[in-house]
């Protein structure tokens, strides 16, 4: 047997041609996923600035507090207005006159 015939038989072997790369992909992927998932756990351990953390705790908004704000609002005169699509002019769509808006901004 020559080297040429051994190489030809290795190229024709389906296990070596398809199985070995698949196993390498699976094993290598598991190591890669382990590294990426470890980043998530490491990020949780990082502490934020205590001053910023105190400010965040002071600005807590609860569902109950927001409900109390809008509980007494009257929604009888509410009108559903469709938002503009990217190719539409928002001022014309919502019934506003663009001439009036131009004079207000200048």
From TrEMBL:
Q: What is the lineage of its organism?
A: Eukaryota, Metazoa, Chordata, Craniata, Vertebrata
Q: Does the keyword Disulfide bond apply?
A: no
| Alphabetized InterPro entries for the sequence | Cyt_c_Oxase_assmbl_COX16
Membrane-protein topology? Single-pass membrane protein
Task: Write down a Pfam family by its short name.
Answer: COX16
Regarding protein family, the annotation reads: Belongs to the COX16 family.
Quick one: where is this thing mainly located? mitochondrion
The name this protein carries in UniProt is Cytochrome c oxidase assembly protein COX16 homolog, mitochondrial
The transmembrane residues are none
Q: Which GO terms describe its cellular component?
A: mitochondrial inner membrane
Keywords recorded for this protein, A-Z: Membrane, Mitochondrion, Mitochondrion inner membrane, Transmembrane, Transmembrane helix
Compositional bias, Basic and acidic residues, is annotated for: 79-88
The segments labelled Disordered in the record are: 79-106
